[in-house]
Specification:
By secondary structure, the protein is an alpha/beta fold. Helices cover about 40% and strands about 20% of the residues. A nine-stranded mixed beta sheet has the order 9-10-8-7-6-5-4-1-13, sandwiched between helices.
């Protein structure tokens, strides 16, 4: 029966880090729209800032991010000069003086930056945005060849959380994905960051990698637990070579099938639960007392372009090539190509190329999908109290979906609608039932399991 469910519900669907998802963004949202949305942010709003560094000194074949391989530092330095111009322009366009809750550097690899540039970029951001008392600063870390001086600079810049890429600790799996990284060098970075006062750590681990089996994943998870991170993100490898050409370097005959992927994910989740980690949504785990675990308990968990988060900000500002932001008015994305991004910022200070203006219908469906993805349930009173009688048709959709589900993945009790334990591994597919855009574009997605 499990194999039948995997075949039926493991089909490719979005990850729903936004709704509508990025393939439905259009050029109808332009620079003038973005400037207008920024100007409407004021003192009452709380904000977060995402900074994209689209460079790596080696290219991992599994990667699905917008990044490029460079062996020279000059392109990185040139990019940073332009990035700081965009930061300044965005800061000048924001109305009032809203406080920033979170700062996240992602990539690519932010740790490609030299120590002087780490400090210069942090100083630039601090000069244009005021941090709130609850401010947190997280950085995605590639522990390979991370120097003590870089760790010193990150700590001095105010980093409070590090997200360390691991993927898999087994050499033969690492060879298949072009990422050789020992446990020992990862351990040294973990110890080095903790010595510098960075106590909140996240590790990224993957299943479904080429050549990876149950024993490989068990070994990796057990070693990850040894490092005692506060959080572990357990991602399923998304094989999308039509989007990321470098993934064609991965041998498809070595990829685990849907059933094997499902068993890997369940095995890893059981190991993490036995080690005391709480399951957060479908792919995150956190120690009790961590912000994610508290948000899950309090039903304040959110989902954005970085995945599950306890960030309650009203708006997320994205800067850098390909960065996506979400403002009260809608979504906006910068152009992806680094050269195009640098040219646009050089001309006007901003680089938006597309986006989406949110309608009330979109807000209702976004809320429903986010609550299902975060809480695995939603109630009719919640929808109606949040959106008025206009939410009634959506409540009817929930009722019909529950009534017609013969596989017992989704149920109802009175006005409460919930994902069953049996349905939780298929939450992305369940959420897609309420996606009004799915199938309306040629976009292709990764497998749901």
């Amino acid at each position: 029966m499990q194999a039948e469910l995997i075949k039926k519900y493991g089909r490719p669907v979005p990850r729903y880090t936004s709704y509508p998802t990025a393939p439905h963004f259009s050029e109808n949202v332009d620079e003038n729209t973005y400037r207008d949305w920024l100007s409407k942010l004021g003192d009452k709003h709380s904000l977060s800032l995402y900074v994209h560094i689209p460079f790596c000194d080696s290219l991992c074949w599994f990667c699905g991010c917008h990044t490029k391989h460079t062996r020279k530092y000059q392109p990185v330095a040139d990019y940073l000069d332009v990035l700081k111009k965009e930061v300044a322009e965005v800061g000048s366009q924001i109305g009032g003086q809203p406080k920033f809750n979170r700062l996240h550097w992602g990539g690519g690899s932010p740790t490609i930056l030299e120590e002087a540039d780490i400090l210069a970029l942090a100083d630039c951001i601090k000069s244009h945005f005021a941090a709130s008392d609850a401010f947190e600063f997280s950085v995605e870390i590639d522990p390979r060849e991370l120097s003590d001086r870089q760790m010193d600079a990150l700590a001095l810049a105010g980093m409070t959380r590090a997200s360390i890429g691991v993927q898999d600790f087994n050499t033969h799996v690492q060879q298949h994905i072009n990422r050789i990284q020992t446990f020992e060098e990862t351990l040294q970075v973990v110890l080095g960051l903790r010595e510098r006062g960075v106590q909140s750590l996240n590790l990224d681990v993957m299943y479904g990698l080429p050549g990876q089996n149950m024993l490989d994943l068990q070994s990796t998870v057990e070693k990850a637990i040894e490092l005692a991170p506060d959080r572990i993100a357990l991602f399923g490898y998304a094989h999308v070579p039509w989007m990321k050409k470098h993934q064609s370097m991965i041998r498809e005959d070595l990829l685990p099938g849907p059933q094997a992927r499902f068993e890997q994910a369940e095995q890893a989740a059981e190991l993490l639960a036995a080690a005391g980690y709480n399951r957060i949504g479908f792919d995150h785990f956190a120690r009790p007392g961590d912000g994610l675990a508290v948000a899950m308990e309090n039903r304040t968990l959110r989902r954005n372009f970085q995945g599950y988060t306890d960030d309650m900000a009203d708006a997320l500002i994205g800067v850098g090539a390909s960065a996506i932001g979400k403002l009260p008015g809608g979504y906006v994305q910068n152009c992806v190509a680094t050269g195009d991004y640098m040219r646009r910022v050089g001309e006007t200070g901003l680089a938006p190329i597309k986006g989406y203006r949110l309608r009330q219908e979109d807000r209702m469906r976004a809320h429903l999908i986010e609550r299902l993805m975060c809480d695995y349930e939603i109630s009719a009173p919640d929808l109606v109290s949040s959106f008025g009688d206009g939410a009634r048709p959506l409540v009817d959709e929930l009722a019909r979906f529950a009534a017609n589900d013969t596989d017992k993945l989704f149920g109802s009790e009175g006005e409460r609608y919930f994902v069953t334990d049996r349905g939780r591994p298929f939450i992305r597919t369940i959420a897609s039932a309420f996606d009004d855009f799915l199938g309306s574009s040629a976009a292709r997605h990764s497998a749901a399991v």
